[in-house]
Design a protein that fits this description.
- The structure holds 2 protein chains of 2 kinds.
- Chain A is mostly beta strands.
- Helix content of chain A is 0%, strand content 52%.
- Chain A contains no helices and 12 strands.
- In chain A, the strands form 3 sheets. In chain A, strands 2, 5, 6, 7, 10, 11 and 12 form a 7-stranded mixed beta sheet that branches. A 3-stranded antiparallel beta sheet of chain A has the order 3-9-8, with no helix packed on it.
- The radius of gyration of chain A is 13 Å and the shape is globular.
- In chain B, strands 2, 4, 5, 9, 10 and 11 form a 6-stranded mixed beta sheet that branches.
- In chain B, β6 and β7 form a beta hairpin.
- Chain B is globular.
- Chain B starts with a strand and ends with a strand.
- The chains are: A mainly beta, B mainly beta.
- At the A-B interface, β6, β10 and β11 of A face β4, β5, β9 and β10 of B.
Amino acid sequence: DVKVTQSSRYLVKRTGEKVFLECVQDMDHENMFWYRQDPGLGLRLIYFSYDVKMKEKGDIPEGYSVSREKKERFSLILESASTNQTSMYLCASSPGQGTFYGYTFGSGTRLTVV
Amino acid sequence: RKEVEQDPGPFNVPEGATVAFNCTYSNSASQSFFWYRQDCRKEPKLLMSVYSSGNEDGRFTAQLNRASQYISLLIRDSKLSDSATYLCAVIASNTGKLIFGQGTTLQVKP
């Protein structure tokens, strides 16, 4: 089974802090994704990457950046955390062949910005 | 208009009931379709892909209607353990991104 591991299950950070959310997958998947999930808004795509050192903006990239230096690792960075970034953050990965495969998700990081 | 829409529910059904969820999508270039299940405070897990001819997995049946741009999920003989949120998700060939509906909450009661 594919494993997608997110480094923290719960995080509490202060407004203005720089926050790193780490995600690692162990099945050599090309594609990796960061979503946030909020009540009433569902899952929204923040950033994604189809290859090492490659990144694409999703639907809500403002206030975030990403890094993919190695194939298995995709980091989400909140440059200056704000309270409206309090959310559940979900990382996912999928194989690179076409668009016919569903994504596998990590267990999520619940981030609270105070 | 949202790209993928679902009735959020909740759907409250007794054990043993048959329940169906629909999900509509707006991008006609959509080519891959999925149903995910999400338990409270957990990550979404892939329940099943949806194929053009429809497909079944035990008590679960998924169907695709390209003309009307919707997918459906039918659950027969509902169990208490089926209580969860069911998310539909769509990948469009022109974007390559997996877009989710808001999810439909199912509560199966004894």
